[in-house]
Amino acid sequence: MTTITDIVPAPARSSLLNANALGIVLLLGLGYIIVPLVGSDYLMDAVLTPFLALALAAVGLNVLTGYAGQVSLGSAAFLAVGAYAAYDLNLRLPELPLLADIVLAGGIAAAIGIIFGLPSLRLRGFYLAVSTLAAQFFVQWALTKFGWFSNDNASGVIDAPVLRVGSLTFTSATGRYVFSLSVVAIATALTARLLASQTGRNFIAVRDHEVAAKVIGVPLLRTKLLAFGFSSFLIGVAGVLWAFAYLRTVEPAGFNLDRSFQILFIIIIGGLASLRGAFVGAAFIVAFPLLLSRLGAAVLGSVFDSGVLEMSQRIVIGALIIAVLIAEPRGLIALVDRATRALRRFRSSQT
Amino acid sequence: MTTFRRAKLALKLSLGAALALGLATSLPAKADEQFFPLQSYRVGPYAAGGTCFFGGFIDYLNLINIRDGGVNGVKLTWDEGETQYEVERGVEVYERLKSRPGVAAWNPLSVGIAYAMIDRIGKDKVPLITINHGRTDSTDGRVFPYVFPLLLNPYSETSGIVNYIANREGGAEKLKGKKLVVLYHGSPYGKETIPIYKLLADKYGFELEQIEVPHPGNEQQSQWLSIRRAKADYVVLRGWGVMNPVALKTAQKTGFPVDHIIGNVWSNSEEDVIPAGDAAKGYVAITTQASGAEYPVLQEVIKTVYGAGKGNLDDKKRIGSVYHNLGIVNGILNVEAVRIAQEKFGKRTLTGDEVRWGFEHLQLDPARVEALGAKGLFHSINVTWDNHEGNGRVTFQQWDGARWKVVSDWISPDWAALRPIIEKSSTAYAREHGIKIRTSGDDPVGQ
């Protein structure tokens, strides 16, 4: 199969890299400077913060499913593990700084992810997906069953602590958004490094052909469990953001199977095995419906009640999903790539 | 049409939409309007309850606007955001609507959404109404100044049910040795009352077994077999959604007498019994408001609001149903809180904090309730700065196969016994969150 790297000559590759770096700098500039300056509290609190949290979760699932080829339906469970672990660490070890809580919570999610990743040594594809459902049910059950996790709150609901790093507190909408953006940016950068390393290549080898990977000396057991662990780590951290920066009050029922499906849809629609795809997909699944709902309410709000509007948005989004997947089964990011390639060809034909 | 023309049309349409969006958000605030942001749910699994409750609420606000021209000339306005009963959608709607001018109060009718808002409404200083549901300890206004679980909280509901069973048995002392099974929904909501049932079992000496039904509750064969084995005298149904009709049908199959099943406040609607068909005939449930459309206020809603073609329910047969009437009662309580606050602060658009003061002085005795045309619809309420539930009375209704009939007096839960437990929980919350417990003197606006 011919890939883009085969047909692009060597000098162009470095310019491609530069273009990537420039794009990242521009995006971070937009995220850190322009959005806080001009964005409303609503935009940051209700649109961008959940977008960032779910994008990070999608990055996590993409490592596992997109890169390492292991299908999982347990993402929401690992979100819940992250959220509740960070809450309990914060509550029971108050001397630990919040950042340490977040990293440790990610670690706990990773440990549980590895346990539920064990069946991947025997099972593949749909069978594995079904076995990861166990995580989904078990975690939700355990969180509701044992009051200890939610500090014996009768309803199992937890309240998030204030986001604090050293003497800095992030209490405003802008603060929580910037906090989330920083966590997501660092985690994504780490993921990109890992995927570019030998481990990342091992993931892809396992995904593309397990037997061949074994023949060339890829340690299957370690690679698969590492994929589960790292993916759950990222999803656990995303769970902390979801609970602490976005909702600030969570209950186990909020992490149901629907949420797992949502994250799976994000990576399928955004593009498997692409970090950018996770972000584009999250924008499509999280932010786009909100935009559509506001547009719909503004234009047709006086004609229809909110239920009818909601249903028609679902139809629009459903139709768009089908259209996108037919036009480009590799997801939105492939469409974006194709557009940028066309633009580049157009520019080079001009010179 | 050429592609170019089509593109141009699309551009025009989207520009128009963007313009409309801009206009809608930048319209200047009109004078003297009180705004009710509604986090409603008209689609999704709980749509049946959502359409009726929010429909009733809107019907009552419409009645006040059409009949009285608003509250003392202040028009009531509202806008809906669809939540599908999902917490994050509720939060999104909150963030979207909170900047509108003149927000009076929030009424999400969802435990999850209410929990997620407690921190936010405290900062924004706007009351949050959780009629018949919500956090039990938010009854303590000393710790939760902006949260109002009006009429009933889960603990007073529990106490009301036990008192009712005691009445039926001929006195509290007859409860001794009786066997009570609580069949609860496997969710935070379902588990909220586990400790209080234990406490009441110790107090009255009845035997207690609490059995969980996993969400959503489609399958209950084994639970009802254990109920049969336990030879239960009464079953309390603490259900939600599909769990309720399934419970009634399974009870019929296992031969448990339906009139010994007592439903809690979220198992008391037409939506819970009609799907169960015959199996529901004779079923009893607690309620804070009677159902039926014969009350004067409902007759006025039918005449004035539906007569003017402004009724919110598409299906007029649902007027007077349990959730519709709960919406009407919720409307009465919100509007009266605004009216009471206006007496103090002036007949103008009030701030959220001023409406909060109104809720803290929401005292409607039976005479006032009758004047509002709601005699028999609900009993009374007496909210104070430190009691945000307001000592509402409860009654019991029985399903006769076609409609609910009230079968008890308005009875009062054992508030004196519940208060210390509530205070224990709320002061623990205050400690955990570094909240200073309020005394009657420190009211930000109510001096």
Automatic annotation (TrEMBL), chain A:
Localization per record: Cell membrane
InterPro entries: ABC_transp_permease, LivM-like
Membrane topology according to the record: Multi-pass membrane protein
Gene Ontology CC terms: plasma membrane
Alphabetic keyword roster: Cell membrane, Membrane, Transmembrane, Transmembrane helix
Pfam families with a match to the protein in the record: BPD_transp_2
Domain of life: Bacteria
Main localisation: membrane
Transmembrane segments: 21-40, 46-64, 71-87, 99-118, 125-143, 177-196, 225-247, 259-275, 282-303, 315-336
GO MF terms, alphabetically ordered: branched-chain amino acid transmembrane transporter activity
Protein name (record): Branched-chain amino acid ABC transporter permease
Native species: Bradyrhizobium oligotrophicum S58
Lineage summary: Bacteria, Pseudomonadati, Pseudomonadota, Alphaproteobacteria, Hyphomicrobiales
TrEMBL record, chain B:
Segments forming domain Leucine-binding protein: 42-401
UniProt KW keywords: Signal
Lineage: Bacteria, Pseudomonadati, Pseudomonadota, Alphaproteobacteria, Hyphomicrobiales
Cleaved signal peptide residues: 1-31
Membrane-spanning intervals of the chain: none
Organism: Bradyrhizobium oligotrophicum S58
CDD domains given in the database record: PBP1_ABC_ligand_binding-like (cd06334)
Family according to the record: Belongs to the leucine-binding protein family.
PANTHER family linked: BLR6548 PROTEIN
Superkingdom of the source species: Bacteria
Protein name: Leucine-binding protein domain-containing protein
